[in-house]
Structures are given as C-alpha cells and as structure tokens.
Design a protein that fits this description.
It contains no helices and 11 strands. It is mostly beta strands.
Length: about 120
C-alpha cells in the first residue's frame, strides 16, 4: 500500500515562513513527478508547484519567489518551504506523486497518489 504523509503544518504569522515535508512509503519501484497543491477555504484545489525526479521545479505564479520545492530521492521525500507568508496562503496543503508500482506478471502501473493534507493557517 503506497502512502503519502505530510507534516509541518500549523499556525504562522504573516511574514513568517514554513517548511512542509511529505514522505512516501510502501512498496513501489519509482517516484516520478512530485508536487504540492493547496485548497483554501471556499476555494478549489490549486497547484503550488511540482518537481521532477531530476529536480526540475515549476511554481505557480502566486508563490513564485516565495516557495522552494525540493526532494530527497533516497528518502522518498518532498519538501515545500515558503517565506513571506500571507493570510491568502491559508489552506490545506497536499502533496502528490506519480508512483510506479509492480503489479506482478510483468505488469507495471503508474498512479497518482495524494497525501491526506496538512493545515497551514497564516494569521494577520
């Protein structure tokens, strides 16, 4: 069973910073694209950014210059660091990953997995 578990959320003052972590566990062959999304109150889930297995990153305009996504392939982890936080950054932050597993009988499968989310609240 493949799982993604986020950690590091909490209450932060405006102007502060945070670091979220996401760990992948279970039985799998490879993790390809990883990313962070967020869903603010009353809003749709939106992309924060993605990172390839080769660590090429892509950020949403709303966080560009304030976010850094990194990953540790040896530990199967992805991180999100954000600075100069604003109340508008208040959201549940989710990590996701495209993970390849072996299904037996020579079959491989790549699926998109989500973590359960971690709440980040930025107070003004």
């Amino acid at each position: 069973q493949v799982q993604l578990v986020e950690s590091g959320g909490g209450l932060v003052q405006a102007g502060g910073s945070l670091r979220l972590s996401c760990a992948a566990s279970g039985s799998f062959l490879r993790i390809n694209l990883m990313g962070w999304y967020r869903q603010g109150p009353g809003k749709q889930r939106e992309l924060v950014g993605t990172i390839t297995s080769g660590s090429t990153v892509n950020y949403a305009d709303s966080v560009k210059g304030r976010a850094i996504i990194s990953r540790d392939n040896d530990k199967n982890m992805v991180y999100l660091e954000m600075s100069r936080l604003e109340p508008e950054d208040t959201a549940v932050y989710y990590c996701n990953a495209d993970i390849m597993t072996y299904r037996g009988s020579g079959r491989y499968e790549q699926k998109h997995y989500w973590g359960q989310g971690t709440q980040v609240t930025v107070s003004s």
